[in-house]
Design brief:
Two copies of one chain form a homodimer. With 269 residues, the first copy, chain A, is an alpha/beta fold. Chain A is 33% helix and 20% strand. The first copy, chain A, is globular and about 55 Å long.
């Protein structure tokens, strides 16, 4: 239970009620007997610069996880960025140094790779399609490139967004084949939905169900949406015989990396 | 335990580790089965305007208790003030309306009167000395005046501070005898330390021990310092045979008023 001496970490986004991190972190803090807590912050966009600036003076705050829709917006508000965060122009975690400086990193991709590995998926030499080139999509694509994926196709409904990410990744990984396209689905070993489509009650899929019916039964299909955990995309993929990876798995798998970066968890967890 | 859907209230000050409110509020929220939590915010002074401004956009924050040293500093940062908060130029609680507007009040005095009543002290017709004319001192003095104290003496080491408070209170309570002085201690029915003197390890008293030895054994002696709860002042007063009231009693007694103002506790608690 939180008391006056409790050290804090936050998770920032809007909406926020659906995120699993506070329950997961707080369960772990409690199990370890640590005087630490994670709080959810549902913030309006116009308050973002002032809120981030005030973190510099918030002495008992160790760090802040950044989620949708602020992963890009916080980038220019920080004092220092990791190499990957700077390349991706996307931050999903901030550490507050004891002098108040704010350092940004992005461990979304680490969590994705770790969760996929738990399903037996190894990226090396494979063909992948990532839908959504926002913060999560970019981080996943970066980590897939780093893990040796053979071809990486990107798509995003926002004009130019997937192309811009492809250009950025190509610079960092010159040997990789990166395309701004959706090819025939049967050719992919991995399909990732990194867009918010499928969230909530709308029961939408990021590609038409008829197209998804072309998925290879050997493909691994992953979704970043956490609520519902079992999205319509994953239901269709499972019906095809694919292995499926739900959003909460990625969140859970990156928890140690988030906690380590903020200084509230050991590296080896 | 805090999860994504948890509604928040904060307590803001520096230092903050010593405050009892988070433990008290969180124990109550938990006992009631409410999805609410109070978090401690230890903030540097330069971050105050940005932090308060960002509360307007913090959708899952219901309100914020304000403690030392920010009770005066937040006043110009809010959208609306209660009559007493405006008069005292001191705020100890903020409610965030659903549209983001920030309303300030001061219930410090209510808590003090309630805690004193639990010791059998009734202000009507009595003679009181309040040491410290900052946020807590002003609120206590205001509530004593409202409760019908006969004479009210004020003292503060900052030049002009006690005098300014006396002038303000005299306007609101024209019939009351208010003086910027410390008279012979034997004449007081109530002595209140509303200064930080006595906090921590220094073991200081707000008046010299020799002077405190003049206290009437029938006097009620109260301290606003919460850590240690049993201050050197209270130890001396208790040795004189006085009834004594510790800082945590005042905090605890005002808890329902704070919670009600922020909309997280019923009025009748």
């Amino acid at each position: 239970m939180i008391q006056g001496s409790t050290g804090l970490v936050a998770i920032l986004g809007t909406p926020i009620a659906q995120v699993q991190s506070p329950a997961n972190f707080n369960r772990w803090f409690q199990a370890q007997g640590l005087d630490l807590a994670m709080l959810p912050v549902d913030l309006r966009a116009d308050a973002l610069p002032g809120f981030i600036a005030s973190l510099r003076g918030w002495n008992n705050l160790r760090g802040c996880v950044i989620t949708v829709p602020y992963k890009q917006a916080v980038v220019p508000l920080l004092d220092e960025l990791s190499t990957r965060a700077r390349l991706l122009r996307s931050v999903n975690v901030i550490r507050r140094e004891s002098d108040g400086r704010l350092i940004g990193d992005n461990v979304d991709g680490e969590g994705f790779i770790k969760a996929a590995a738990a399903h037996g998926f190894e990226a090396s030499g494979k063909h992948a399609l990532v839908l959504g080139a926002g913060g999560a999509g970019a981080a996943i694509a970066y980590s897939l490139a780093e893990a040796g994926i053979a071809t990486l196709d990107l798509a995003d409904p926002t004009p130019g967004r997937a192309e811009a990410l492809a250009t950025t990744l190509q610079t960092a990984f010159p040997a990789l084949v990166i395309r701004d396209q959706v090819a025939a689905l049967g050719g992919y070993d991995l399909l990732v939905n990194a867009s918010p489509i499928g969230m909530g009650e709308a029961a939408e899929t990021p590609l038409p169900p008829a197209q998804l019916a072309e998925l290879s039964p050997h493909a691994h299909v992953a979704d970043v949406v956490t609520k519902p955990a079992h999205t319509p995309l994953l239901a269709l993929a499972q019906a095809r015989g694919c292995s499926v990876q739900a959003g909460p798995e990625m969140s859970l798998a990156q928890m140690p990396a988030l906690g380590f970066f903020m200084g509230v968890m050991p590296e080896s967890l």
